[in-house]
Design a protein that fits this description.
This protein is mainly beta. The protein contains three helices and 15 strands. It has a domain of about 130 residues.
Amino acid sequence: MRWALPIMLGTMLLATSAPAQQAEPRLDLSGPFNLPAGWQLVTTQGADVEDPGGNTAPGPLHLCITRDGGKSCRPALDAMLVAPGEKSVFDTPHYLEAAKIIHLTPDRPLLWVQVASLHGGNGDQIVGRMALTYDRAGQRFVPVYAKRTGRNNNQDVRFLDKGPLRGAIISAEPTTDAPFAFWITVNRMDSHGRYAPVLRYRSGTGYGDGNPLAVIDSEMPETLRRLKLWQPGSPLPLPEHPCPRPRLVAQVLWCTYPPATPPR
């Protein structure tokens, strides 16, 4: 459920602890990308550390795409969380949340990596996602999409592997001004082999509306309509999980009856 109070990373509030996620130490890349033997994503993790809230947390991650067992990286992915400006304790990945092969098309694989920082004092994290392809001329992997978000405010980034937007990457990020809603951005691969935005709009989905659907799911009919991939009167695009009472309310998908008064 979405709530209406934006919260930034901080150390003043009581921290929430979460169990450490075990990083997969190696992911084979030779097979999926039809490369010579030895290509891997190798992940190593340092000793436990204390996070800003005083809790024990997993140590820093080192992520290396390598063809020689980690002697050289082509490239290293340690800077996925770094933003322009001053350095921060949240610039370093400590949690490996995903490392997997996705497919833009059946014969076009991409490497998808998702990492997260230490928890802030309010439990928030910086989350970084990156999609990479193999550059045969340069004999290295190169990013084709990268995105950093927080987590506390229902931010979401999703690669779509089926449906009319197969191969697209959609993100939902909270607006900073009232009426509080979300920026929905659809990215598709362009002619240069990089993901680029093809649609960005302010959602009809709002904070505190009582809709239990993820924002990307509640906005899917409107997203597809704006891209001329769906029109009212056609079957509704539904999420993969059960949706017992699908209905549109002000262009927003609901799977339940909306509350008479949105929760506060």
